[in-house]
Amino acid sequence: MARWQPDARGRLEAAAFELFRERGFEQTTVADIAARASLDKRTFYRLFGDKREALFSGSGRVEEVLVRAVTETDAGPFEAVVAAFRRVAEELFADRLELVRARQAIIESSPELQERELRKSGSLAAAVTAALRARGLDETTATLATESGATVFRVAFARWIAPDSDAPLSDLIAEVAAELRAITSAPNALTSAGPDEPSRRW
Amino acid sequence: MARWQPDARGRLEAAAFELFRERGFEQTTVADIAARASLDKRTFYRLFGDKREALFSGSGRVEEVLVRAVTETDAGPFEAVVAAFRRVAEELFADRLELVRARQAIIESSPELQERELRKSGSLAAAVTAALRARGLDETTATLATESGATVFRVAFARWIAPDSDAPLSDLIAEVAAELRAITSAPNALTSAGPDEPSRRW
DNA sequence: ACGGTCATGTCGCAAAGTGACATCGGCACT
DNA sequence: AGTGCCGATGTCACTTTGCGACATGACCGT
């Protein structure tokens, strides 16, 4: 028997991605995934904690880039986090709009996957906060900077994958960061702040 | 047979809470919960979508208070959200520190429950954002205000349930909100800009 | 060739959910 | 009271998840 399959993990990820697109997440069985990759269900569970994990293998790389970027700068906490997310946008997301859209569509179709994504984001945030603390910041400051930066990223990301969007994610992040500043620093603005001038490289 | 149980839902919630505390979430079976409430497993699934939901029945009330508070004020978006969370703190959390601590301990013991809590928070946030939009704010402003306010709440909440804490949650929220302002309002220039080769496979 | 180790397959099982159907209790209406 | 309907609950059977235990085949160093 073909014991020793090259890149079993990668093949399972690919099979899962295809099947989730074809039939949807809930209509896809782990046995289906394994079958398409010519592997056994049990093998799947040895490589992935559960069915959802097959979609989230990339989060490790995101964490790497994020932590490295935050560690290697000496900008203010919030600025550092925003810059780190822009790094991620440039290194990991640019050029992959369609792939990211497809993946996001799958996630949004299933509550289970949404939950998992939230958890992944949470652990990413924890790692960034830890990196900030390693720079000497106190817990509260580090957490607030991380969460604010993550919020900026989420909003910018949503705009990026919107069907009519074409601006680079990195630019969108910079714009949204500026908007956040406007909101939190002016304790009386009753109405919204219009789309400000996109701050370039600052 | 005893068809017709008074307050089946409440009894199942109580039974679940007890069992989760006694044996932990994963070691508790839905059949166990139902048995303690003298009901059938199938009945549990008619009242709750899944095992986790038994712990999250309170989120409905939180949403009510939040949305009402945000709707009935004309303060700036961020201020309105912070004030709304303070309302929640006063009306729903004050006087229940020990209960909340126990509940939080259960949640933190199980990744599954953490995911569910994240999702609940997310749908709460969506409701608040919608309420802000109903006041005429644009999507981005509403989202940023909601998320920032939620972050403030999370940080304050963590302090509140910390073992050595004794300040009222509502006060902690006000303090943390001030700290967030301090962080985001001082734009401190400095980019990341590192020559790095892009990694593959997000 | 030998033994060890690692990746994979096979088998079986507890628990999560769910659909279909049965049953009981109260309720309205005669 | 009698009848009949409806909603809440129980029962059964089933699919899927996820995992433990064990078997087996492939590769590796000696």
H/E topology pattern of chain A: HHHHHHHHH
Query: What class, by secondary structure content of chain A?
Result: mainly alpha
Q: Please state the oligomeric state of the protein chains shown.
A: homodimer
In CATH, what is the class of the largest domain in chain A?
A: Mainly Alpha
CATH superfamily of the largest domain in chain A: Tetracycline Repressor, domain 2
What share of residues of chain A is helical?
55-70%
N- to C-terminal distance of chain A:
59 Å
CATH T-level fold name of the largest domain in chain A: Tetracycline Repressor, domain 2
Largest sheet of chain A: none
Tally of strands of chain A: 0
Q: Give the tally of structural domains of chain A.
A: 2
Write a brief caption for the model.
2 copies of one chain form a homodimer. The first copy, chain A, is an all-alpha fold.
Overview of the molecule:
- Chain A is mainly α and 202 residues long.
- Chain A folds into two domains: 8-51, Orthogonal Bundle (Arc Repressor Mutant, subunit A), CATH 1.10.10.60; 59-182, Tetracycline Repressor, domain 2 (Orthogonal Bundle).
- Chain A has helices at 8-23, 30-36, 41-47, 59-71, 77-93, 97-108, 111-134, 139-161, 169-185.
- The longest helix of chain A has 24 residues, at 111-134.
- Chain A is globular and about 55 Å long.
- Chains A and B meet through helix 4, helix 5, helix 7, helix 8 and helix 9 of A and helix 5, helix 7, helix 8 and helix 9 of B.
- Chain A binds a DNA duplex (30 and 30 nucleotides) through helix 3.
